[in-house]
Every structure is written in C-alpha cells, then in structure tokens.
Write a structure and sequence with these properties.
- The chain is an alpha/beta fold and 185 residues long.
- The chain has 2 domains: 30 residues; 151 residues, 3-Layer(aba) Sandwich (Rossmann fold), CATH 3.40.50.
- It has 5 helices and 7 strands.
- Strand 4, helix 5 and strand 5 form a beta-alpha-beta unit.
- The radius of gyration is 18 Å and the shape is elongated.
C-alpha cells in the first residue's frame, strides 16, 4: 500500500513539473512589450560557434539565458567562466535544477541583465529576436569594454555592423560578431 502511495506521489510530482514547464514554454510566446519569448539556442548555431577562436578562462555572459544551453556548450567546448541572466523566474528555477543534475557550474541570475556589470565580461552571447536587439543595442554597446566581443546568434543588430559573420555553406545559420567602436557608443 505504501509503495502505491509513494508511486502515486512521484507520478503526481512528475506530471506537475511537466505541466509547469509546458505552461512556461507556451506563456513565453505571449509576453508583452520588450520581453523575449523562450527559444533555446539552435544546435546548428552552436556548431558554428565551435569555429570561433574563443580563449579559455575568459568570462562570458548570456543575456536572456533561458535554458542555459549555450552556456553549458561554452563550458564544455571552451572552458570559459560563465554567467547567465534571465528575468523569467520559471526558467531560472527549472534550469538551475537541470544544471545541478548535469553538474554544470553555470551561474544563473534571476534579474534583468541591465543590472549586470557588463564591463567585467570578455564575451557577451545573446540569442534575441530583432525587436529585442533594437531595444538593447545602444545600452549594450555603451556598457561593454572595447575588447569585449558580442556574439549574436541568428539575428543582426540594426545600427551596428558586425566585424565578422560566421555561417554555414548555405548562409542559413549565422553568427554575428561585434566589437564596441566610437560609432556605436
């Protein structure tokens, strides 16, 4: 009898977690204003990043990290020191738990990335939609150092021009690399 009750509790908790996660995923597409829906980094984008010359032990931040999938990739491929910021409470709780299971050392913060000191990072990674890129563009480039490299997956900034574009042979998947310049601050 106790085994059946314990099994029922485990099934209930599992179903509740699955429903919570699915609600988070669906609701993220209906966020108003300048908030971004949750879309995980594409594996094809991450494969392109493997070809970048990123230096070990540098610091990287993911703005709007969501699942922290990209940060775990940077952790495994480049030995970078990593932080992730997201304002979605459900994403941070879910992925904090998932990172503990995977024994990842990614630090996730439940706060707006505009509160982060971006000057302490060597790389800034983001996978945001064009609407969000327009909103953060001037503020981002004002708050990074001249040496910082901004890595934008799939989408280009409106005002700033990338110094390098990495793409696959069909130009379908692209990574845009930016640096701060006098024109964009």
């Amino acid at each position: 009898m106790y085994k059946e009750i314990l099994l029922l509790i485990i099934v209930f908790v599992f179903v509740a977690l699955v429903l919570w996660y699915n609600a988070y995923m669906i609701m993220s597409f209906f966020v108003p204003g300048k908030k971004a829906p949750f879309v995980s980094s594409f594996d094809s984008d991450l494969k392109l990043i493997k070809w970048l010359d990123l230096h070990r032990w540098k610091k990287i931040v993911d703005l709007g990290c969501g699942s922290a999938k990209a940060l775990r990739f940077f952790e495994s491929e480049f030995d970078l020191l990593w932080d992730g910021y997201d304002i979605n409470f459900f994403a941070i709780v879910w992925w904090w738990f998932w990172n503990k299971i995977k024994k990842s050392k990614v630090d996730l913060y439940w706060k707006n990335f505009f509160e982060a000191d971006l000057k302490k990072y060597d790389y800034v990674y983001l996978f945001l939609l064009p609407k969000q890129l327009v909103y953060i563009e001037s503020r981002l480039f004002k708050n990074i150092t001249n040496e910082c490299i901004v890595i934008s997956a799939s989408f280009e900034f409106k005002k700033n021009k990338p110094y390098k574009i990495v793409s696959n042979q069909n130009w379908r998947w692209r990574i845009y690399l930016y640096r701060r310049s006098k024109e964009n601050i």
